[in-house]
Amino acid sequence: MTVVQVLLIVVFAPFLHGAMKTLRARLQGRRGPSVWQPYRDLRKLWSKDAVLPEGVSWIVACAPGVSLGVALTLAAAVPLIAGPPAFLDVVALMLVLALGRWMVAVSALDTRSAFAGMAASREMTLSALAEPALLLALLGARVSGGSFLVPHGNVSIAGIVALFAFGVVTIAETARIPIDNQETHYELTMIHEGQILEYSGWHLALLNVAGYVRQFAFLTIAAGLIAPGPVAALAGAAVLAVFITFVENAFARLRLFEIPQLLTTGILLAAASVGARLV
Amino acid sequence: MKPLSGLTTAFVGAGCLVLACLAITAPPSFGHVGSIVPGFVLDWGVVPLASPFFALLGMLTIAVAVWNAPDGRYGWGIAAFAAAMGAVLMARSVAAFMLSWELMALASVVLVGAHVEVRAVRRAVFSYLIVSQAGALGILGALGILAVHAGDTSFAAIAKAAPQLPDAWRNAALGLALFGFGSKAGLFPLHFWLPRAHPVAPPNSSAMLSGAMLKVAVFGLILVFFDLAAPAGTTWAVVVIAVGAVSAVGGILYAAIDSDFKRLLAYSSIEHIGIICMGIGAALLFAKSNAALSASALTASLFHAVNHALFKGTLFLAAGRVAKVAGTVDLDRLGGLAASMPWTSAAVFVAMLAIVALPPLNGFASEWLLLRTLASGMDIADPVTRVAAGAALLALALTGGIAAACFAKVYGLAFLGRPRQRHLTAQRETFGWQASGTGILAVGCIALGVAPLVAVSPLSRIAAALVGAPAGAWRDLSVPTTLVSVPLIAVLPVIGGIVALLLMRARRTRYAPTWVCGSTPTAQTQYTATAFSKPLRRIFAFVLFPEHEKRIEIGSSPWLPSRIGYRTSTAYVFDDAMRWASVRILMVSRRGRRVQSGHLRLYLAYAAAVLVLIVVVAR
Hints:
The complex is a heterodimer of chains A (279) and B (619). Chain A has 279 residues and is mainly α. Chain A has helices spanning 2-27, 37-47, 58-77, 90-110, 114-140, 157-173, 192-195, 201-224, 230-250, 259-278; one strand at residues 50-53. In chain A, helix 1 (2-27) packs parallel to helix 9 (230-250). Helices cover 69% and strands 5% of the residues of chain B. In chain B, a hairpin with a 6-residue loop joins strand 4 and strand 5 (561-570). In chain B, helix 4 packs antiparallel against helix 5 (119-150) and helix 4 (94-112) runs antiparallel to helix 9.
């Protein structure tokens, strides 16, 4: 069942991304690309050979695979149709996400690009603040004495506060405004996209699939924190996606050194959710 | 003859491993060496608690002996140092403990001061000596208080008398022990000597200092808190957690902004001692409410101590190799080492994943265990326990995040990328003694990461006995069963990485210059370590107080500067506070010297005053 769930998420995740992109274009008064565009992009990229910077080590070639593996692990942990395996608890999940992030950052540094280096620096710094918020939010939505798997369906004050905290983390992890901007064309303002500037062809396809799956999983986990049942979680994820798209249209990206304040707010909210659970 | 010292070192290491096994199967007692002076009783024996420490000491010593084989320098010093540390672990009376503790300190001072002709080394040795002796006084005070209460100086008698200890005495002993062992272990704010002393020692010695000696101090701390002065109580638990949390976050923060590879590793040692301390504090915290959780926290601590010895040993030995080959450990000048030093870099890659606690390596297993234990501790009803466990969890997660940034910088900029020094591209490392010495420890990191239960099941028995939990109680937590399978979490990422590499072979790949806006990529167009840590310096400016200075020399046109200089510096608030305190202490003691004027009449007056005082008090 877990395998089926992971496969379904992989198949459906690009659609969610395409839909968000189309919606954003409509909100801006453009027609925008078709919702199926991510699939076409993936097919195109997959068929192309990769171009790598001269002299890079094996890590650059390895990182896209590791990143996708981490995304699939995350997809297995989402509480949807299958109960995740017992070892995929929230602590291990936080650390395996760190594995993917670390490999991508290190390979960005290996590409010798100053843009990638700057992006890696920012990504690692900001996620140092996002990680505690992620862990505490998931523990805050947990039922006391319950299991340590990704929590779901906790309709309580703790669950709702945890949803807000996890929402901040989701924005950071999915590289969305106001923390990051996926669609900027100016390298200096990129965070996540900046790291993978030197990737092309099928490598980029792997990284993009990993990104889509991560986005889908994060949105579903966030909605699932308070949604009763998998259908509600998916509907909630759709609502969150629409909400994020609206935010992306209404706000500009924060200045880099204002982002830590947002993330610290996330940590405080997560701590509050833990406090609310314990009271 | 050089091989002789190497063989001796390896022999000491092997002896430690044997004792590690004996300690958990059949703890031997080497009995009692008569007392020449009253109170000077030398008891020696091996307790189960010493087992993990013997194991890490043995592994590290053997690896260092192998690493040292071609060079052989400081071989006898290392052998003596390892033997002295082994003696501390075996001491079972106050006199034996203090004697071997001072021998260990002496041997380490000799190693730190190997390059005593350098001024910075002399200063480092001096500050280390002062802290070390002050710490030893603290330990002597703590053990002295306990021995006076027990009426006997053997540890067995002290431990037996511990439950009847009056509160004031217990608190004094625990405070002095925390000060004494904490200063040796490099806990904040007594850490300031460590980032100076460890990097200036020869690489083989810094591996031993960071990997093993800090752990011997941890051993002492656990011995006093869980055996000699047990039970320590919740207040002390909170104190130990707080000290550990500050050390962990502070240590990794200073490591993350540092660009000196060896000093960065020394700061990261402070971080890991802090993590171990948080585990010890958590074990004290849960002791009353949930013995199984308490045992679990202590197990995580002991496991992390072993793991830290493995990966930090790897990294310090590798740093020594880098210093020799590249001639510098400045991350802003290093680059592309993976191409010229493939063996060392492979070991470093493994150790990096371990130190950042990434699956499936050993650092992940122990930090996962500690985080899971703390998370379970948040379910305990007592509010103090809950809040302390939650705060420790937050500190640990933050530490992990900053550590990931710190070591991405080290590996990505020093080992990957383009070499920043031209002579590095010419030579290529061959597999030799030094690579194998580093490799042994890296293999250990993988083994304990893939099969953590090998270490965790004996450690959990030791921990359960110390906190007074039934040996099997820990199994109820469902942690051990999960721990077997938790390395499985890395299966998909590892497969993904391997498949990507295989696909790369099957498909055509073109190589092109890196895009640098149209100009030619050089070593200078890469990002630097100082730049990489800039966001952290700014975000944590409220503790780091960073300053920078830009110098632009204008050439023929104001728009085309001929030179641009950039300097950045950080204020080390803890070091400054300590310097402030030591200057004040010196000032007071200089004033105090006036009472010793040398006039006989004044001394007679002192004697008379004391006499009067005694009469008044004793009346």
